[in-house]
């Protein structure tokens, strides 16, 4: 197998002492921010983007990937012990996991989550190893028009299909695309949307937007709600060693979760919530004790946690092979590639084999590290949950300020950060998703570039997107994804009953 | 979608959502106006720098209208979200911290500005121990400052406090 020998080379890269250290730092940091409410991998990687000026690319991506995987592991701890899902993808884990913790079986819930994450993370990473070269072969046939259509498809699924409302998701997306357009147009040298401010000529830094939305906006929102409810931390209880029965009830959900999560994550549509929900319902259907669901069924933790981690691995496939990020974190990683002058896409595996295979090998190593970090050392992370909220959020805002002010030492960036934070607060309050803003901002300019290339090749003929079979198929799928659910609703309900408000 | 609700009283327009929808629409209009003012060389007439901006503005405008329609039909917030009034005092404390931070970070340096921000945010979250918060905030800011300065090689707004410490421990400030 060619992929196999490439992977061995990757291990040679990842197993150097320095890279092992980066992996350890990444996984540790990732677990910590996954555990802490209010901090996520997208925000953390954004704050660490300046490291790309100091460290060579392989090391930086090993660090980022460790954070990415680590946050998935850490997030489950918070869901189980605090019932406050740190990530939207761990909402389902909280359903059963928190009940288990209340019943004195927190140890077993944490164990099945960690081992399930490990199993699924390994399967998912193996999936990347063998799927990535296949996708690359296929993607080499893509022209600019096909790429543009593929990006449109990703835009639609990421913003319109995965969230609670297509209109709000798309509004967030186009806001992000607009932010991405600000600055000098690289093709013609014209300044766009700069409002005469020289600071905006280079465009708005993605760090400012990510930190504004995820740190400032989130802090403002939590503060505005804080006095209404206090979270109760369930102490670590029960043995971390799962009983034989718990093992028996866990291993199939792990494998099924991985089988559900990876393919969905690997689709250019992305989204970690759908596989976790899907896995939850599958386990509920297949369980021999469905009456336990809602009261702390271990299958309901094992399956979704596995699905979550496998889909996180899957997301890396379109990111590395097509340059198509389908989550906020992947979008920020893409901007890290850009900061190295590397364009992820089908040629990445050939032009940067050290980087790609070193990164994939480090994912295997990181999974092993994370299993150790999250089982024997779990008590350390539980302590993090005891940081009082005032200090935690004050720290987050100070860190957000450093990360932003550090880029240019310009107060303009700080003002921009706080303005975007205010918008982030309103978006959170009025239920607009934040991830499409980041994805639109990073992917928007790339989509425009492909659009203009396609139009130049076709000599300004708009029909090029519909006459190329591949492009037309993808656009048709995008239209189906956008309008399909509405049409289905209309067809199923010729005489609608009373439908209050918006769905 | 509301064709079956004639018997009910017409849903009241939601104020918050109307403002949001109007905001999106205004942004789209500003974008349209800004996009029109981008000069286009005839060389690029078909796929020039304004095509995608205009498409974005048009899409956002349409979405703004759809949001306004949603808002006038009663809005989309859940009952729970609607009934919870935001804690204004908490928001004001944080806002004060952010404004002071922007104003002070240049003249007073990073550590002092950050300590004030830290105290204000902690106060917003209900902490009353101002002295404790200030000490923790200052320690946190100093660690973060030197951490960033050394590992990432970024010099973030050094002021009086930072230069003094750098002199004391013998590190050359840049």
Number of helices of chain B: 7
Report the portion of residues of chain B in β strands.
under 5%
Sequence stretches where pLDDT stays below 50 over 5 or more residues of chain A? 495-503
Q: Total number of helical segments of chain A?
A: 21
Number of domains of chain A: 1
N-to-C order of helices and strands of chain B = HHHHHHH
Work out the number of β strands of chain B.
0
H-E string of chain A: HHHHHHHHEEHHHHHHHHHHHHH
- Which shape of chain A, going by the Cα principal axes? globular
Poorly predicted tracts of residues of chain B: 1-7
Can you give the mean pLDDT of chain A?
87
- How many domains in all of chain B? 2
Intertermini distance of chain A:
49 Å
Q: What's the average pLDDT of chain B?
A: 82
Euclidean distance between termini CA atoms of chain B? 64 Å
Specify the overall morphology of chain B: flat
Structural class of chain B: mainly alpha
Blueprint (SSEs and pairs):
The complex is a heterodimer of chains A (about 500) and B (about 170).
Chain A: H1 2-14, H2 17-35, H3 41-47, H4 57-82, H5 91-102, H6 106-139, H7 144-161, H8 166-181, E1 183-184, E2 191-192, H9 206-225, H10 244-266, H11 273-286, H12 299-322, H13 328-339, H14 348-351, H15 353-374, H16 378-384, H17 389-408, H18 411-429, H19 435-457, H20 464-467, H21 469-492
Antiparallel strand pairs in A: 1-2
Helix pairs in contact in A: 1-15, 2-4, 2-15, 3-4, 3-9, 3-13, 4-5, 4-6, 4-12, 4-13, 4-15, 5-6, 5-12, 6-10, 6-12, 6-15, 7-8, 7-19, 7-21, 8-19, 9-17, 9-18, 10-11, 10-12, 11-12, 13-19, 17-18
Chain B: H1 15-36, H2 51-72, H3 79-83, H4 88-108, H5 110-124, H6 130-152, H7 160-168
Helix pairs in contact in B: 1-2, 4-5, 5-6
């Amino acid at each position: 197998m060619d992929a196999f020998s490439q992977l061995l080379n990757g291990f040679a890269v990842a197993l150097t002492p320095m890279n092992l250290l980066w992996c350890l730092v990444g996984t540790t940091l990732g677990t910590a921010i996954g555990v802490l409410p209010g901090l996520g991998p997208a925000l953390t990687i954004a704050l660490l983007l300046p490291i790309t000026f100091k460290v060579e690319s392989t090391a930086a991506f090993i660090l980022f990937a460790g954070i990415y995987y680590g946050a998935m592991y850490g997030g489950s701890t918070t869901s189980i012990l605090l019932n406050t899902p740190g990530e939207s993808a761990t909402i389902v884990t909280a359903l059963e996991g928190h009940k288990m913790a209340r019943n004195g079986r927190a140890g077993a819930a944490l164990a099945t989550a960690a081992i399930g994450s490990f199993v699924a993370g390994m399967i998912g990473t193996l999936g990347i190893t063998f799927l990535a070269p296949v996708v690359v072969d296929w993607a080499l046939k893509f022209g600019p028009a096909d790429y543009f259509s593929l990006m449109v498809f990703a835009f639609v699924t990421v913003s319109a299909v995965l969230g609670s409302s297509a209109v709000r998701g798309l509004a967030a997306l186009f806001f992000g695309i607009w932010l991405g357009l600000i600055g000098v147009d690289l093709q013609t040298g014209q300044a766009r949307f700069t409002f005469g401010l020289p600071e905006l000529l280079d465009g708005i830094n993605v760090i400012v937007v990510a930190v504004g939305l995820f740190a400032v906006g989130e802090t403002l929102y939590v503060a505005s709600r804080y006095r209404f409810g206090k979270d109760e931390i369930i102490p670590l209880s029960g043995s971390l060693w799962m009983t034989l029965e718990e093992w028996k009830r866990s291993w199939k959900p792990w494998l099924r979760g991985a089988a559900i999560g990876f393919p969905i994550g690997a689709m250019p549509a992305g989204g970690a919530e759908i596989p976790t929900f899907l896995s939850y319902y599958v386990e509920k259907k297949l369980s021999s004790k469905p009456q336990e669901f809602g009261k702390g069924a271990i299958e309901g933790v094992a399956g979704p946690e596995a699905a979550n981690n496998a889909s996180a691995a899957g997301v890396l496939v379109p990111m590395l092979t097509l340059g198509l990020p389908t989550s906020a974190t992947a979008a920020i990683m893409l901007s890290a590639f850009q900061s190295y002058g590397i364009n992820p896409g089908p040629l990445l595996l050939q032009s940067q084999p050290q980087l790609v295979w070193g990164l994939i090998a480090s994912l295997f190593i990181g999974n092993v590290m994370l299993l150790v970090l999250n089982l024997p050392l779990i008590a350390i992370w539980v302590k993090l949950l005891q940081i009082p909220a005032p200090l935690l959020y004050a720290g987050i805002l100070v860190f957000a300020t450093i990360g932003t002010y550090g880029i240019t030492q310009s107060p303009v960036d700080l003002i921009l950060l706080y303005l975007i934070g205010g918008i982030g607060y309103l978006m959170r309050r009025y239920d607009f998703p934040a991830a499409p803003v980041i994805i639109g901002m990073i992917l928007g300019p790339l989509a425009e570039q492909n659009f203009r290339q396609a139009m130049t090749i076709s000599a300004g003929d708009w029909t090029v997107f519909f006459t190329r079979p591949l492009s037309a198929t993808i656009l048709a799928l995008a239209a189906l994804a956008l309008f399909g659910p509405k049409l289905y609703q209309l067809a199923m309900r010729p005489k609608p009953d009373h439908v209050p408000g918006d769905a | 979608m509301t064709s079956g609700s004639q018997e009910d009283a017409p849903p009241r327009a939601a104020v918050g959502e109307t403002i949001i929808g109007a905001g999106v629409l205004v942004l789209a209009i500003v974008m349209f106006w800004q996009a029109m003012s981008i000069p286009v060389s005839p060389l690029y007439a078909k796929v020039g720098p304004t095509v995608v901006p205009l498409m974005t503005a048009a899409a956002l405008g349409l979405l703004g209208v759809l949001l306004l329609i949603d808002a006038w039909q009663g809005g989309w917030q859940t009952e729970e979200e609607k009934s919870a009034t935001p804690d204004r005092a908490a928001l004001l404390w944080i806002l004060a911290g952010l404004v002071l931070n922007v104003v002070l970070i240049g003249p007073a340096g990073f550590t002092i500005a950050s300590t004030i921000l830290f105290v204000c945010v902690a106060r917003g979250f209900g902490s009353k121990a101002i002295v404790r918060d200030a000490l923790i905030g200052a320690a946190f800011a100093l660690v973060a400052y030197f951490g960033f300065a050394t590992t990432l090689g970024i010099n973030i707004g050094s002021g009086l406090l930072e230069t003094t410490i750098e002199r004391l421990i013998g590190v050359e400030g840049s």
